[in-house]
Automatic annotation (TrEMBL):
Its cofactor is heme b; Ca(2+). This is Peroxidase. Its EC number is 1.11.1.7. Residues 1-29 form the signal peptide. It catalyses: 2 a phenolic donor + H2O2 = 2 a phenolic radical donor + 2 H2O. InterPro entries: Haem_peroxidase, Haem_peroxidase_sf, Peroxidase_pln, Peroxidases_AS, Peroxidases_heam-ligand_BS, Secretory_peroxidase. Gene3D superfamilies: 1.10.520.10, Peroxidase, domain 2. It is found in: Secreted.
Length: 336
């Protein structure tokens, strides 16, 4: 018989998480002195929000999957050095960027979208709007354009002059990572367990690559026969260079619509990524299981929490870039 943790041990675990969450938030919460305001560009670039929205409309209309690409870029940016545009930097002789780190190299796309928005803004308001702000606003608009909720985006971020290749490996959650490890990564950023479950709902419009769900579908995946056969046709059991980048939607019901369908996949045991399914199936996921059920039952509760959690995510700041940052002329390179 498999060992089951006692009720006492689970209670102590819940208390420990609460303490860690409080401690983490105290240390890593955005500084009240961070110069982020809704009207930061009111006099210097009053059309910034309109320009970003129009460009994102074009991108999402051309391919709805572009919404997920931009949203993922924003998440990966904020989890490394805060929301400072560091994820956008290309490698140079003097700088090792974050794009080629293992968690990013085959997962992140959409950099050209941010380039195009930046070019428009440079024509309208030269040297004014940071790449970090562009990415943050574009992520919000991406969600809205595929049916998701609205939230206000305070702006005024500066672009980092550095990147951190090693922090990508340390900070970005991975597809086969355990629940407790992922919770710890969110707590480190000042984000709660509730934030984690709500932000995972972004996978309702996301795609996953074969190498990230192979172990899941050839393991204890509880999907219907037809769905499982389809997944195995996309992702063969044998590792091959031609199959690793084959991708499929994490929400196979409404893949291009931002809704709460993702949580229903978890209730059915059909979460494509092991890390997602663990929020509902892990024995330690007492709180996460309740939240999954809540968001599956109440789409408005999911939308409200997702908006609140995205504000918290977007307000993770890089104290160094606040003081020493810049507004890059080209998002891929530090100004010379």
């Amino acid at each position: 018989m498999a060992h089951q943790p006692s009720l006492i041990s689970l209670q102590w675990f819940s208390i420990l998480l609460a303490c860690i969450s409080l401690f983490s938030w105290t240390i890593f919460a955005v500084s009240p002195d961070a110069p982020l305001t809704l009207d930061y560009y009111k006099s210097t670039c009053p059309t910034v929000f309109e320009i970003v929205r129009k460009e994102m409309e074009c991108e999402v209309n051309s391919d709805p999957r572009n919404a997920a690409l931009v949203l993922r870029l924003h998440f990966h940016d904020c989890f490394v050095q805060g929301c400072d545009g560091s994820v956008l930097l290309d490698d140079t002789i003097s700088l090792q960027g974050e794009k080629k780190a293992s968690a990013n190299v085959n997962s992140l796309k959409g950099f050209e979208i941010i380039d195009r928005i930046k070019n428009k803004l440079e024509s309208e308001c030269p040297g004014t709007v940071s790449c970090a702000d562009i990415l943050t606003v574009a992520a919000r608009d991406a969600v809205i354009l595929v049916g998701g909720p609205y939230w206000d985006v305070p702006v005024g971020r500066k672009d980092s002059k550095t990147a951190n290749y090693d922090l990508v490996r340390e900070n970005i959650p991975t597809a086969n990572e355990g629940l407790l490890s992922i919770i710890a990564k969110f707590l480190y950023q000042g984000l709660s367990v509730t934030d984690m479950v709500a932000l995972a709902g972004a996978h309702t419009i996301g795609m996953a690559r074969c190498e990230n769900f192979r172990a899941r579908i050839y393991g204890d995946f509880g999907a219907t026969d037809s769905y499982l056969r389809n997944l195995k046709s996309i992702c063969p059991a044998a590792i091959s260079s031609s199959g690793e980048n084959n991708a499929t939607a994490m929400d196979n019901v409404t893949p291009n619509l931002f809704d709460n369908s993702f949580y229903h996949t978890l209730l059915r045991g059909e979460g494509l990524l092991s890390s997602d399914q663990e929020m509902y199936s892990n024995v330690f996921g007492i709180e996460t299981k309740k939240l999954v059920r809540k968001y599956a039952d109440d789409p408005l509760a999911f939308f409200n929490q997702f908006s609140d959690s995205m504000v918290k995510l977007s307000n993770i700041t890089n104290s160094d870039s606040i003081v020493n940052g810049e507004v890059r002329k080209i998002c891929r390179f530090v100004n010379t």
